[in-house]
Specification:
Structural class: alpha/beta
Helix content: 40-55%
CATH topology of the largest domain: Rossmann fold
Mean pLDDT: 77
CATH class of the largest domain: Alpha Beta
Number of helices: 18
Oligomer: single chain
CATH architecture of the largest domain: 3-Layer(aba) Sandwich
Number of domains: 3
Largest sheet: 5 strands, parallel
Strand order of the largest sheet: 4-5-8-3-9
C-alpha cells in the first residue's frame, strides 16, 4: 500500500467519523426539540390567567402577552391606559417619577414577576365540542355485580354496604350518561354511610374511585366552618375535587366527594354560642348536595384576591358522607326500649346492650335526633350501615385482600430472600388482640408492627436465614419465632425449627 492509498483510507475514515458525529448531533437536536415540544404542549394545555384581575382566558377573552410570560386581558389593559391618560395622571408624570422627582419610587421590574402564576392555579383549556367524546359512556359503565366483585378483592365482609354502593354508583353514572332525553329527570344518589370506627368506610370509597377511574376528593368535616370564620369554607370540598382532577372542570364535575366525620357537624346541644361548625355548615352544604353553580378558588383552599376563581356545577358530582356517629346507639336503644312495659312479656332494658350491630336498626328519625337537620338528610336519600368487625373478619382482613397486611410484610422480607409464615393460631391471636382495642382494622397494623420490629431488625444480619414462622407462643411472649436456614424443608404451615433463640 503506497502513501496515496493510505491517504485515501485515512480520508474515508475521517469522513465516516465526521458523518457519525453529524448524525449524533442531529439525534441530540431532534431529542431536544421533542422535549421542548412536550413542554410546550403541556403549557398549552392550560389557560392563561390575567395577572391583574385573575380571570381565566375563557372568561376574560384573548390575553395580551408582555415580556417575562405575563398575560393581561384587554379590559385591564384598556383600564390601565385610561387611568394613565386621564385627568391628574399622565404618562409624562409616570416617567418623571422614575427620573428623580419622587424619591424611593421606581418602575416595576417585570423580571421579578416571571412565572408568578403556577400551573396548579391555571385551568385546563376546554377541548372543541366536535372532537370531544362523552365523559361517561353508558356502555362502558360496569354493572353492579362487576363493581361488587372488584370491591370483594380488596374489602372483606360488608356485603350489604358493597351492594348498596355498587347499585347507587351505577345508577348515578347512568343518570349522567342519559342526560335529559325526556321529561323524566333522575335525581342524584348521594349516600350516607354509618359504621363504627375502623370498619372500612374510607377504604371502600377509595377503592370505588380507583376502580371507576374518576377523580376523588376526601375531606374532613371537622375543619369546615361557616363562611367568614377561621377554617375551610364549604366550597373548599369542591376546590379539592378540582385539584384532584388536575384543574379540569369538566372532569371534576363527574367526580366523587367523600366527606368523612360527617357526624362532627351535628347540631350542638345546650349551647348559647353561635354554632359556626355545626348546623350552619349543614345548611351551607344543602346547595352543594342538590346541585348548584359554585365559585371556587383554583389551586388554593381559600378565596383571596390573588387566586383565580372558576365556576363548578355540582349537579353531577356524587357526594358520599360517612361517620361513626358515637352515642347513636343510645338513641336507637331508647327508641327500641319504649315498647317495653311491666308484665311477663316485657322486654329487658339491657336486651340490646351487647348487640354490636345495633346500628343496623337505625332510622332517619334516629339520625335527626342525633343532630342532623331534616333538609340535610333529605338530600342523602341512600342511608346504610356497615357491620362491626368480628374476630373472623379480622383474620380474613389479615390474609385475603389483594394488599393484605400479611402480604405486605411477606413482600418486604422477600426482598431479603426470606419467607414469612404466620400460623393460623397466630392470626387468631392477632385478631383477638385487635378486637380488644376497639378501633377496628386499624389495630391490626399496630399489633403486627410491634411484634415484627425485632424480626425486621435481626433478619438482615444473617444471610443464611431462609424462613421465619410467627407462632402464637411468640405473640404471647412465651417463645420465639421459628427460624429455618436456607434449604431446610417446610412442612405445611409449620417450619422445622433449627434455631429458637429468644433474640
Amino acid at each position: 500500500m503506497n502513501n496515496n492509498d493510505y491517504r485515501e483510507v485515512t480520508d474515508e475514515e475521517e469522513t465516516g467519523s465526521n458523518r457519525g458525529t453529524v448524525v449524533e448531533e442531529e439525534k441530540k437536536e431532534v431529542a431536544a426539540a421533542e422535549v421542548a415540544g412536550e413542554q410546550e404542549d403541556k403549557e398549552n394545555e392550560y389557560e392563561d390567567i390575567c395577572y391583574i384581575c385573575r380571570r381565566p382566558e375563557h372568561v376574560a377573552g384573548k390575553m395580551i402577552k408582555i415580556p417575562n410570560n405575563i398575560s393581561i386581558c384587554q379590559d385591564c389593559m384598556q383600564k390601565t391606559f385610561d387611568s394613565m391618560n386621564g385627568p391628574g395622571f399622565s404618562m409624562d408624570d409616570m416617567f418623571s417619577m422614575n427620573m428623580g422627582k419622587m424619591p424611593n419610587i421606581s418602575m416595576i421590574n417585570l423580571s421579578d414577576l416571571q412565572g408568578f402564576v403556577p400551573n396548579n392555579q391555571k385551568l385546563k383549556k376546554k377541548k372543541p365540542k366536535e372532537k370531544k367524546e362523552p365523559v361517561i359512556d353508558i356502555h362502558k359503565i360496569p354493572a353492579p355485580h362487576k363493581i361488587k366483585a372488584s370491591l370483594d378483592e380488596y374489602v372483606v365482609g360488608q356485603e350489604h354496604a358493597k351492594k348498596v354502593m355498587s347499585v347507587a354508583v351505577y345508577n348515578h353514572y347512568k343518570r349522567i350518561a342519559s342526560g335529559q332525553q325526556d321529561d323524566v329527570e333522575i335525581e342524584k344518589s348521594n349516600m350516607l354511610m354509618i359504621g363504627p370506627t375502623g370498619c372500612g368506610k374510607t377504604y371502600l370509597v377509595k377503592t370505588l374511585a380507583k376502580l371507576l377511574d374518576v377523580p376523588l376528593a376526601i375531606t374532613d368535616a371537622t375543619s369546615l366552618t361557616e363562611a367568614g370564620y377561621i377554617g375551610d369554607d364549604i366550597e373548599s370540598v369542591v376546590s379539592k375535587l378540582l385539584a384532584a382532577a388536575d384543574n379540569d372542570v369538566e372532569r371534576a364535575e363527574h367526580g366523587i366527594i367523600f366527606i368523612d366525620e360527617i357526624d362532627k357537624i351535628a347540631k350542638k346541644r345546650n349551647t348559647n354560642q353561635r354554632d359556626v361548625s355545626g348546623e350552619s355548615v349543614q345548611q351551607g352544604m344543602l346547595k352543594l348536595l342538590e346541585g348548584a353553580e359554585v365559585e371556587v378558588p383554583v389551586g388554593a383552599s381559600s378565596k383571596n384576591a390573588m387566586v383565580p376563581m372558576t365556576m363548578v356545577n355540582t349537579k353531577d358530582i356524587l357526594f358520599i358522607c360517612g361517620g361513626a356517629f358515637p352515642d347513636l346507639e343510645e338513641i336507637i336503644k331508647e327508641r327500641l326500649n319504649k315498647q317495653a312495659s311491666i308484665g311477663f312479656k316485657a322486654e329487658l332494658k339491657d336486651k340490646y346492650d351487647k348487640d354490636e350491630n345495633i346500628l343496623q336498626k337505625v332510622t332517619v328519625e334516629d339520625v335527626r335526633k342525633f343532630g342532623m337537620i331534616p333538609e340535610f338528610l333529605g338530600r342523602l336519600p341512600i342511608m346504610f350501615t356497615l357491620d362491626a368487625l368480628t374476630e373472623d373478619m379480622l383474620v380474613r382482613i389479615l390474609k385475603e385482600p389483594k394488599n393484605a397486611i400479611i402480604k405486605q410484610y411477606q413482600k418486604l422480607l422477600a426482598m431479603d430472600e426470606v419467607n414469612l409464615i404466620f400460623d393460623d393460631d397466630a392470626l387468631a391471636a392477632i385478631a383477638a388482640k385487635a378486637k380488644e382495642k376497639k378501633v377496628g382494622a386499624r389495630a391490626l397494623r399496630a399489633i403486627i408492627e410491634e411484634y415484627m420490629l425485632d424480626i425486621m431488625y435481626e433478619i438482615p444480619k444473617d444471610d443464611n436465614i431462609g424462613t421465619v414462622t410467627i407462632t402464637k407462643d411468640y405473640l404471647e411472649n412465651k417463645g420465639a419465632p421459628l427460624i429455618a436456614m436456607r434449604g431446610c424443608p417446610v412442612i405445611g404451615e409449620t417450619v422445622r425449627p433449627q434455631v429458637a433463640s429468644g433474640e
